[in-house]
């Protein structure tokens, strides 16, 4: 009721087209949500890369055939196109954290469609090193994971994963360098928390997968039973 009253006097506006939105807790109108492209099968059965061919195709992409992967399956809900790039930039760097409501709805819609995380017992997020968190002020993966946990009714364990090395930004490195850059840069607060658990690991973007893979390596070596990765977006296209 309070939200409806606030929205009456201070209506929410779509961050894409500036049109009035009736729901006070949304940032993207229905018309603009439809412009955000959902990623469609066929997907690589390991990393979730979008492939060419029939939607029923079941195969592994070339990178996954040569890489050592520790997560059991990775998925990304949306295409990382210009519209979503701008929104994610607002979320991460302008600290428009209310966008997590819109992003969570997109992720959950995708998860339900493809039965992602149906056996998950715990949600974890990709951690940020304290130095970077101090500069950024927010951890976007933490915000998304917390929102997903509430909506899905799955326990979100914050601070279970920790970033112990303040490594150079991944975006400035090539694929091989990214893997070396992250090796042994994460730790677990308590290995017993993840032992024999089915874990859903959350981040905003999937690029090469080196970050989620290194976290998955740690989780699997600590006794995790199954690690499934879900991200909001990925920049591949068939």
Can you put this structure into words, describing what you see?
The protein is of the alpha/beta class. It has two domains: 1-35, no CATH class; 40-234, Rossmann fold (3-Layer(aba) Sandwich). The chain has nine helices and eight strands. The strands form three sheets. It has a four-stranded parallel β-sheet. A two-stranded antiparallel ribbon has the order 1-2. Strands 5-6 form a two-stranded antiparallel ribbon. Helix 9 links the parallel strand 7 (198-206) and strand 8 (226-234). The mean pLDDT is 90.
CATH fold type of the largest domain: Rossmann fold
The first-level CATH class of the largest domain is given as Alpha Beta
Straight-line N-to-C gap: 45 Å
Q: What series of H and E elements makes up the topology?
A: HEEHHEHHEHHEHEEHE
Strand order of the largest sheet: 3-8-7-4
Determine the strand fraction and express it as a percent band. 15-25%
- In CATH terms, what is the architecture of the largest domain? 3-Layer(aba) Sandwich
Described by strand count, sense and barrel closure, the largest sheet is: 4 strands, parallel
- Annotation field: number of helices: 9
């Amino acid at each position: 009721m309070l939200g409806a009253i606030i929205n009456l006097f201070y209506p929410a506006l779509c961050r894409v087209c500036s049109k009035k939105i009736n729901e006070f807790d949304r940032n993207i109108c229905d018309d603009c949500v439809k412009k955000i492209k959902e990623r469609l099968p066929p997907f690589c059965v390991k990393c979730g890369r979008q492939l060419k061919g029939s939607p029923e195709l079941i195969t592994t992409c070339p990178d996954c055939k040569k890489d050592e992967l520790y997560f059991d399956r990775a998925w990304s809900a949306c295409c990382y196109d210009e519209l979503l790039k701008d929104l994610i930039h607002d979320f991460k760097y302008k600290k428009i954290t209310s966008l997590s409501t819109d992003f969570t709805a997109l992720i959950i819609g995708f998860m339900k469609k493809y039965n992602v995380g149906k056996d998950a017992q715990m949600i974890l997020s990709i951690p940020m090193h304290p130095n970077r968190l101090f500069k950024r002020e927010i951890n976007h993966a933490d915000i998304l994971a917390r929102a997903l946990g509430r909506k899905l009714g799955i326990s979100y364990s914050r601070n279970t994963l920790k970033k112990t090395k303040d490594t150079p930004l991944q975006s400035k490195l090539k694929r091989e360098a990214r893997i070396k850059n992250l090796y042994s840069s994460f730790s677990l607060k308590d290995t017993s928390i993840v032992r024999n658990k089915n874990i859903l690991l959350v981040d905003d973007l999937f690029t090469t997968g080196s970050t989620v893979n290194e976290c998955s390596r740690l989780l699997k070596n600590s006794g995790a039973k199954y690690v499934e990765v879900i991200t909001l977006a990925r920049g591949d296209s068939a």
